[in-house]
Amino acid sequence: MTSATSPPSRPPVPGRPRLIATDLDGTLLRDDKSVSHRTVAALAAAEEAGIEVFFVTGRPARWMGVVSDHVHGHGLAICANGAAVVDLHSGGRLLEVRPLERETALDVVRTLRREAPGTHFAVELTTGFHFEPDYPPLWRDPAATVAPAEKLLHEDEPGSGAPVLKLLAHHTDLTPDGFLALARTAAGDRASITRSSPSALLEVSGLGVSKASTLALCCAERGISADEVVAFGDMPNDIEMLSWAGRSYAMGNAHPDVVAAASGRTVANNDDGVARIIEDILGATA
Predict the structure, then answer these.
(1) Region of residue 51 (left: phi > 0; alpha: psi -120 to 50; beta: else)
(2) Short-list 108, 208, 111, CA closest to 153
(3) Which percentage of the chain shows pLDDT scores above 70?
(4) Which residues are paired to 230 by β-bridges?
(5) In this structure, are residues 70 and 40 in contact, taking their beta carbons and an 8 Å threshold?
(6) What is the 3-state secondary structure (H, E, C) of the chain?
(7) In what order do the strands lie in the sheet containing 93-97?
(8) What span, in angstroms and rounded, lies between the C-alpha atoms of 103 and 105?
(9) pLDDT tens by residue, 219-245
(10) CA separation for the pair 93, 76 (Å, rounded)
(11) Is the dihedral of CA 79, 85, 89, 92 positive or negative?
């Protein structure tokens, strides 16, 4: 699946996981998007102890600069909720893409326009981010195309466009969880739909594509079982990963559904919840 070379593995230590998978926003990162000194030290200690660390995020590869200096060993990260595996050692080069087919994305757009009038869309391609006129982007990219989703997803010929990593759908009036439930009922049989924002912003991926499914593929390549993985997260897009991992921790600031899915709980992201658990793991198995 991936072409980056993994470092030689050390003999497993009884009771110690072989891989740590952590979300970024609201989990590893503090609210100001920084990585604390304590967390940097914990990640380095885990890698030194022979534990691989995977960042598993909804972010696109171009937003990974905040943590790219803190990946050792293999240098891989899972981005866009499992739609891409990237090599952070080479500036975010895409190694694997699990795309959302354009026709499926158009079908979801039509369905949500009908079932939730007032929905506005954006499209994350492997080549960049584009959005509708009324979609509220976090930043203004002068290279972005601003047009209706139907135009953004149009291909002159099938297969001629860049792969779609995810479709984003925003609604001003619906509640975040209410919008998610509505969308899953209306279109969940055609695509994977989740959310990670505090607003009513949905992230739509190919059916079966999630942080969990891509992480499972990466682990299988390394001969790592789910029982040898510890995972951390805070929002609904982390639930499948937390349920899959042998040990999992919801952050102190996590969504209630995430708390229910995880096998354990740690303190909030601003209090270095991930670092504390890593320190405990290394201390208990030293």
Answers:
(1) beta
(2) 108
(3) 89
(4) 20, 247
(5) yes
(6) CCCCCCCCCCCCCCCCCCEEEECHHHHHCCCCCCCCHHHHHHHHHHHHCCCEEEEECCCCHHHCCCCHHHCCCCCEEEEHHHCEEEEHHHCCEEEEECCECHHHHHHHHHHHHHHCCCCEEEEEECCEEEECCCCCCCCCCCCCCECCHHHHCCCCCCCCCCCEEEEEEECCCCCHHHHHHHHHHHHCCCEEEECCCCCCEEEEEECCCCHHHHHHHHHHHCCCCHHHEEEEECCHHHHHHHHHCCEEEECCCCCHHHHHHCCEECCCHHHCHHHHHHHHHHHHCC
(7) 93-97, 84-87, 76-79, 52-56, 19-22, 229-233, 247-250, 264-265
(8) 5
(9) 999 999 999 999 999 999 999 999 999
(10) 10
(11) negative
Beta-carbon-side half-sphere exposure of residue 165 (alpha carbons within 13 Å): 26
Tell me the pairing of strands 52-56 and 19-22.
parallel
- φ, ψ of residue 56 in degrees (nearest 5): -125, 110
pLDDT over threshold 90, residue 286: no
Residue with tokens 């899972």: 78
Dig out the tokens for 117 from the structure.
């009038």
**Contact yes or no for 123/105 (Cβ under 8 A):** yes
Q: Comparing C-alpha atoms, which of 10, 38, 51, 23 is closest to residue 282? A: 51
The mean pLDDT value of the chain amounts to: 90
Pairing, β 76-79 against β 191-194: unpaired
43-99 pLDDT, tens digit per residue, is 999 999 999 999 999 998 887 877 766 666 667 899 999 999 998 888 778 999 999
CA distance 268 to 166: 28
Structure tokens at 229: 């993985």
Cα–Cα dist 242/238, whole Å: 6
